[in-house]
Design a protein that fits this description.
Elements: H1 10-16, H2 20-27, E1 53-56, H3 62-73, E2 77-82, H4 85-97, E3 101-106, H5 112-126, E4 131-134, H6 151-178, E5 182-187, H7 200-220, E6 225-232, H8 244-249, H9 260-271, E7 282-285
Parallel strand pairs: 1-2, 1-4, 2-3, 4-5, 5-6, 6-7
Length: 291
């Protein structure tokens, strides 16, 4: 949905670091779920994550990109990765131009050495790690059971979406422990709750992320590390391009696709001290799909 002429564009607001009062005023103008609040496309800047160090995977586009910007504008020091160097440098430049602090490091979560180097670079650059958002993921149709099945794609989805999250958590935990604890948030999906014929492998992988989140939360609670997940529904990102997000969003109770910034708000809640008694949970950001 396009913003009206009297509402600043997302880019202008991001660059200007719009204040909390302006954000609240714009958000209050939304009449219902079917109308995205103007504030859903921008982030306030009042420093609630000042001096926190945040590590985000898969932040060169979509949800990861929006979340990296959001944390940076709230005062966090953000280390983020992706496989596309050009896009990573672009996001880094955007954040720094808006007055935030962020560093891009090219890394593939499927590769052990690259994940280890990413976490090490985060600690070396910013002095530690407080919050990790394991967001990197891919989708695709591997095929139908009983027919030609694309094992290479299936394995790639599992290696990225499941093993990549396990690998990241495994390397993040020592850095989080060194700071006395912290927060881990994993990107799952509403498809982790149901079957999916078109993208069976993707749905399987996200169900695994939900299970992993609960198990890791149990393992790490004594170390003061909270582990939670967010499960987006149809979100207007490049991954759901070609009108897929809008078509799926129209079938939700909200009647529209979500925006990446709306997921970023949920991630920030789970990372914040406001969620200090929340662990092993999944926060669905789906316009009511699973209601």
């Amino acid at each position: 949905m396009a913003l009206s002429d009297n509402v600043p564009s997302r880019r202008a607001l991001m660059a200007g670091g719009v204040g909390l009062a302006a954000l609240a005023a714009q958000s209050a103008s939304a009449a219902d779920l079917k109308t995205p609040a103007a504030g859903a496309s921008v982030m306030a800047s009042h420093g609630r994550f000042k001096d926190k160090v945040v590590l985000i995977t898969g932040a060169t586009s979509g949800i990861g990109r929006a979340t990296a910007k959001a944390f940076a504008l709230e005062g966090a020091k953000v280390m983020f990765c992706g496989r596309r160097a050009g896009l990573g440098q672009e996001v880094q430049a955007e954040i720094r131009a808006a007055g935030g602090e962020a560093t891009f490091k090219q890394a593939d979560v499927r590769v052990e050495a690259e994940v280890a180097a990413l976490v090490a670079a985060c600690v070396e650059t910013y002095g530690g790690l407080d919050i990790a958002f394991n967001n990197a993921g891919i989708a695709g149709r591997a095929g139908d059971m009983g027919a030609a099945f694309n094992w290479a794609l299936h394995d790639d989805i599992m290696a990225t979406n499941v093993e990549g999250v396990v690998r990241c958590i495994n390397h993040q935990v020592p850095a989080l422990k060194a700071r006395g604890g912290g927060s881990i948030i994993n990107t799952a999906s509403v498809l982790g709750y149901v079957g999916s014929s078109p993208v069976m492998s993707y749905a399987m992988s996200k169900a695994a992320v939900l299970s992993l989140t609960r198990s890791a939360a149990l393992q790490l609670a004594s170390d003061n590390i909270r582990v939670n997940a967010v499960s987006p529904g149809p979100i207007d990102t490049p991954m759901m391009g070609g009108g897929a997000a809008q078509a799926s969003g129209a079938r939700t109770p909200a009647g529209r696709a979500g925006q990446p910034e709306e997921v970023a708000f949920a991630v920030m809640y789970l990372a914040d001290a406001a969620a200090s008694y929340v662990t092993g949970e999944d926060l669905r950001v789906d316009g009511g799909v699973r209601a």
